[in-house]
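This follows on from our talk about sequence and fold. Go ahead and set the record down below:
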Amino acid sequence: MQSSCFSHPLSRTLISAAVASTFALAAVNASADLSSRYVDNDGDMVADVPTDESQWVDPNTLVFAYTPVEDPAVYADVWAGFLDHLSEATGKRVQFFPVQSNAAQQEALRAGRLHVAGFNTGGVPVAVNCGGFRPFAIMASEDGSYGYEMEIITYPGSGIESVEDLQGRQLAFTSETSNSGFRAPSALLRSEYGLEAGDDFETAFSGSHDNSILGVVNKDYDAAAIANSVGTRMISRGVVNEGDYDIIYTSETFPTTAYGVAHNLKPELAQQIQDAFFSYDWEGSALEAEFANSGEAQFIPITYAEHWSVIRTIADANGVTYDCD
């Protein structure tokens, strides 16, 4: 893959100066917008664990779902070893739930059918506010760095060499809850380039990052906004090859998938689950094999209030609100 001169320098911790100027009017520490189903008495922006023990959930089988960015069948195998570890740590049966869409994963959480999950970056605020999700971990490299970049890609020979060339062409997004697949590029194109979806370029929604990538490679879409971590993994598995698509824009670094639990799990069980993430041995595992090419080698602690601040700012810049009730 080639990155043009329009790509931005990468940063692990700060949003780029250009995008920062766009979001300056949006409060970085946006106030929580929790559904009325939940309370946040401790002010950490996520749903509190119920004080009434009768509301705690202690299922015989824990249901786990990974964000549906790629083929669910592939990821059932990737997560199998970790789920065995989780089963041993909790004494519970653990079932992998192969969700087909972000909406299906969100609804499963909200309906109480999902206990442990990894939600995509843009979906985390929805899960927190509307489903009572309590995120606590993220994948990171050995030195503790983490994250991914949003890229706008096109196929070689498309005639699109810069972001400005998207005028009058088609750009594929993934879903409206995706950070890199919709919200971040929408804000970027509007603020930095004066390009408005539907007016200046046509749009399509592919449903997932892998669909967007394959759509560009097969010339179904002129261009697409993707998470580059997904592209890296697809290349490592031979699904696509280096040079199958060109990169015309690379963003600042964003946090990647957040892992957490439903807010109403029995506290002892929730703690066992959290401990299982941080005690998992990656060496020689299927997780290591799958995620090593994008740098991940461990789980590290995160908080929604701190680590999702930039994502909430992007959502504010797009006028996103949560009508959870």
About this structure: The longest strand covers residues 246-254. The chain has two domains: 20-25+147-254, 58-145+256-317. Residues 58-145+256-317 form a domain with the D-Maltodextrin-Binding Protein; domain 2 fold (CATH 3.40.190.10).
